[in-house]
Amino acid sequence: MRILAIGDITDPQSLEYIAERLWDIRAREKIDFVVVNAENASFITGASAEQLKRLIDSGADVVTGGNHTLQNKSAHAFLDDSDRALRPVNYPPTAPGSGYTVVDCNGYRALVINALGRVNMEPRLDCPFTAVERVLSREEGNFDFAILDFHADAVGEKLVMPHYFDGKISIIFGTHTHVQTADEQIFPKGTAYISDIGMCGHRNGIIGSSAECIIERTVGCMPARYEPADGEISADGVIFTLDSSFKATEIKRVKF
Length: 256
Prior knowledge:
Elements lengths: L1 E5 L1 E2 L2 H8 L2 H8 L3 E5 L11 H9 L4 E3 L11 H6 L18 E6 L2 E9 L11 H11 L6 E7 L3 H4 L1 H6 L5 E5 L9 E2 L5 E3 L4 E4 L8 H8 L14 E10 L5 E8 L1
Parallel strand pairs: 1-3, 2-11, 3-4, 6-7, 7-8, 8-10
Antiparallel strand pairs: 1-12, 5-6, 9-10, 11-12, 12-13
């Protein structure tokens, strides 16, 4: 089984870039299941309902989110109604939507969980580790394998997940930093892990944003409006291969 995870979509133009190509990518790479993180699809303000639907119609089996997801109020009703679009599971239960879902993957039941880290992150939510543990306990017997998108900033926090859930979650990948890491590994009990899968966005700026505005804010210490970068767009992703017992056998970093 081959599962593709695509990193944070940084703006509307980048969303269209991957949406126009995703079915072809699935066919070419023989992909069985796709998870896309879209929490920046409206550019730092979450994804709209229309954008979430566009991704699902274009070949994403599940769309995950992060710290900006609930900023886009237009998506709240869609999150409530859809079993294909997630916000982090460690939000309070009063928040719109759900932090996990169980969906079909070639006749198998795939549990997909989205969690938000707490180190250097806002809002500061419930403990992501206990939140994920509650889901695994609650859904025991209702899924065949599990996938976790851990939207977090600190690698040290991210690495706790595979050590804690090795053998219980087949695939754990990080999002949020927009920079793909080269630390992919398979843990002893079969869990595949990578700290960050990267981004789908413009390459001429700084993690998808205009370099000029970031320089003004960082070097000049002056307020400057965030603007999307321009130029070439590409999409970072990772293909995970699972065997018949849902243990990982291969991790492959890719760019489209």
